[in-house]
Amino acid sequence: MARPYPRERSNAWFLERWPYRVFVLRELSALFLALYMGVLLVLAARVHEGSSAFRDYVDALQSPLYLAFHAVALLFALLHSVTWFQAVPKGLPLRRGEQRVAPALLIGANYVAMLALTVLVLVVVLS
Amino acid sequence: MTQAPSDATTIRLEIARYRPEQDERPVLERYDVPYRHEWVVLDALNYLKDHIDGTLSYRWSCRMGICGSCGMMVNGVPKLTCSAFLRDYLPGPIRVEPMANFPVERDLVTVLDDFMEKFQAVKPWIIRDGEQPLEEGEYRQTPAQLADFKQFSMCINCMLCYAACPVYQHEDEFLGPAVLALAQRYNHDSRDQGKGERQELIWSDEGIWDCTFVGECSAVCPKHVDPAGAIQQAKVESTVGWYRSFLAPFGRG
Ligand code: SF4
Ligand code: FES
């Protein structure tokens, strides 16, 4: 009786093709969002402690290390938004009668909402 | 895609051979076959078997992307070889391997038992509490009710989605993309009443919750079944169901 060759498992599967690499980066993006939330929380705590503590922290944030972190976190935040917006129609197959609402419309709605919220935040911050 | 016919006259295939009586493990062997603009990878394999090496084993039947038996890895990506044109892989070589994530029986032929078992486990047929009397006629469905599951019914069981799924590669128990899409196909059929029977398995860890939403199953699916979508939708339904049973434990689920 012939023996089948057992199925192969790879511990580096996530490096093997681009779709897998993007998947891993997408999952990793949550870590950077969490770290950034940490920065925001510390910032809030400093505000609570008074204006000099706040200013010291803002100064510290301007160190190259923190700036680099922010740049990386921003890239991951963008990747996070793009990949998850892309995924919305998969989990939410809205239908009008027999027709599916075009996925592009659902994805677009998320970008519009993101833009609106960003503008809102900017208006609040700058006013 | 329209491409001008190429000047190539031959193209190189690198084929994974596994002959259990002589090979410890699959080995790549190289063959040069004629290049024709209108040939698909399967045509090249058939030429090879007819003219160069008759011992090559692989599965195929319809040659028109409907039987689902000719799936293989082409340059590392799961493809129906009857739909993968040589011209899209110029100048070659083209690496042809058995579908990933399955044991290999011989050459390009994989062992499908695991898929077959899981396929049956989700009860992929219409389940009813009782049949309505014959004189009431057929079970009618509106176009909207049909649209609710039609996409999931287009699956041809080619298993390309399994070859693309890293979760299936690492989790023996995972039911996998096509089988979970198939469960959705019946759960969403207005004539079916078997959702409750399928629920325990589908909503378990071996079912939808093992899925980490890599999404490659949907990318490689030749029939646009979108199994990744089916699984995410089932996750939403399972979550809603859980909250419902939590908030109203004695109500209808
Ligand atoms: S879901 Fe698509 S890729 Fe998976 S078995 Fe069915 S047709 Fe093939
Ligand atoms: S030979 Fe039937 S799908 Fe390719």
Textual characterization of the structure:
The complex is a heterodimer of chains A (127) and B (253). Chain A has 127 residues and is mainly alpha-helical. Chain A has one domain: Fumarate reductase/succinate dehydrogenase, transmembrane subunit (3 helical TM bundles of succinate and fumarate reductases), CATH 1.20.1300.10. Chain A has helices at residues 13-16, 18-49, 51-61, 64-91, 103-126; strands at residues 95-96, 99-100. Chain A has a two-stranded antiparallel ribbon with strand order 1-2. In chain A, strand 1 (95-96) and strand 2 form a beta hairpin. The longest helix of chain A is centred in the first third of the chain and has 32 residues, at 18-49. The radius of gyration of chain A is 22 Å and the shape is flat. With 253 residues, chain B is an alpha+beta fold. Chain B has two domains: 10-110, Beta-grasp domain (Ubiquitin-like (UB roll), Roll); 113-252, Alpha-helical ferredoxin (Fumarate Reductase Iron-sulfur Protein, Chain B, domain 2), CATH 1.10.1060.10. In chain B, strands 2-1-5-3-4 form a five-stranded mixed sheet. The chains are: A mainly alpha (127), B alpha+beta (253). Chain A binds chain B through residues 2-10, 13-14, 16-17, 19-20, 23, 27, 87, 89-93, 95, 97-100, and chain B through 18, 20-21, 25-26, 76-77, 100-106, 111, 143-144, 146-148, 166, 169-170, 212-216, 218-219, 226, 228-229, 232-233, 235-236. Bound molecules: iron/sulfur cluster and FE2/S2 (inorganic) cluster. The site of iron/sulfur cluster has 15 residues of chain B, from helix 4 and helix 6.
- State the CATH class of the largest domain in chain B: Mainly Alpha
Terminal CA distance of chain B: 49 Å
Oligomer: heterodimer
Helix residue percentage of chain B: 25-40%
Instruction: Using the alpha-carbon principal axes, give the shape of chain A.
Output: flat
Q: Strand order, biggest sheet of chain B?
A: 2-1-5-3-4
How many domains of chain A? The number is 1
How many extended strands of chain A? 2
Low-confidence stretches of chain A: none
Strand content of chain B: 5-15%
The spatial strand order of the largest sheet of chain A comes to 1-2
CATH superfamily of chain A: Fumarate reductase/succinate dehydrogenase, transmembrane subunit
Mean pLDDT of chain A: 92
Helix/strand/pairing category of chain A: mainly alpha
Please report the total strand number of chain B as a whole number. 7
Number of helices of chain B: 9
Q: Please give the CATH architecture of chain A.
A: Up-down Bundle
Number of discrete domains of chain B: 2
Distance between the termini of chain A: 79 Å
